[in-house]
Automatic annotation (TrEMBL), chain A:
Keywords: Membrane, Transmembrane, Transmembrane helix. This is Stage III sporulation protein AC. Pfam families: SpoIIIAC (PF06686). Signal peptide: none annotated. It comes from Paenibacillus terricola. The chain crosses the membrane at residues 7-27, 33-53. The gene is spoIIIAC. It comes from the Bacteria. InterPro entries: Spore_III_AC, Spore_III_AC/AD.
Length: 67, 173
């Protein structure tokens, strides 16, 4: 449980920082770079979520298809 | 835990430092372009009124200009006095290209300077004067552009360094 909570906080932190970088770059007129940063942040978070989902499915497997 | 904390603070420190260095480059560029223009003015005086031979004129300019720009002219003067039978233009090109990374200036100023180098010492003083004036005007334009860049990017790179460091720290926790 403890690990899960820290992962959620980590994703939230990444979101906040990426949002700040995005606004900063957009303000300075570098919109393409800002969009790339957002996309990269999204992909990183997606990887983390996929790992967590993988854990979830493993858990379900061990519960319902135990052998 | 303690080790993690130390590592995180080191990354934060390094990121902030990189951001500040980048900002300092943006802040130094207009200053150094102005210095370069001043040095060329000095060289113009040496050529037009003093009619000093070019190696001596470069030496005087180098000793009078401020530091990063003085090094450029010093490098040219050194290459010239080393001899080796190369033309002034080759010496100027080579020395400028070699010493350029020690300054905060970028490619457009280098182009202006190199173009000037193909003229200096090749013709009479009126022609050289004309090209020195042209270079001064071009450098002025570059200085304005550099000042715009400074207003735009100086603060941005400062906060961007810190933000990227924070991002790396969060990713690695």
């Amino acid at each position: 449980m403890d690990i899960d909570v820290s992962a959620i906080f980590q994703i939230a932190g990444i979101g906040i920082i990426i949002a700040m970088i995005h606004t900063l770059l957009k303000q300075m007129g570098k919109e393409e770079v800002a969009h790339w940063v957002t996309v990269i942040g999204f992909v990183v978070v997606l990887f983390m979520v996929v790992r967590l989902l993988n854990d979830l499915f493993q858990e379900i497997k061990t519960i319902f298809l135990f052998q | 835990m303690l080790l993690k904390l130390i590592g995180a603070s080191l990354i934060l420190f390094a990121g902030t430092l990189i951001g500040f260095l980048q900002a300092a480059r943006f802040a130094d560029r207009p200053k150094q372009i102005r210095q370069l223009a001043g040095a060329l003015q000095r060289l113009e005086t040496e050529i037009v009124f003093g009619q000093t031979p070019l190696p001596d004129a470069l030496q005087h300019t180098a000793s009078n200009a401020g530091q990063p720009v003085g090094r450029l002219f010093q490098a040219v003067a050194d290459e010239l006095s080393a001899g080796e039978g190369r033309s002034f233009r080759e010496c100027w090109d080579h020395a400028m290209r070699r010493a350029w990374p020690t300054t905060s200036m970028r490619a457009p100023e280098l182009t202006v300077t190199l173009r000037l180098g193909s003229i200096l010492g090749m013709s009479d003083k009126d022609d050289q004067l004309k090209h020195l004036r042209l270079a001064a005007v071009q450098l002025k334009a570059e200085e304005d552009a550099a000042r715009d860049d400074q207003a735009k990017y100086e603060k941005m790179s400062r906060s961007l360094g810190l933000l990227l460091a924070v991002l790396v720290v969060i990713l690695m926790v």
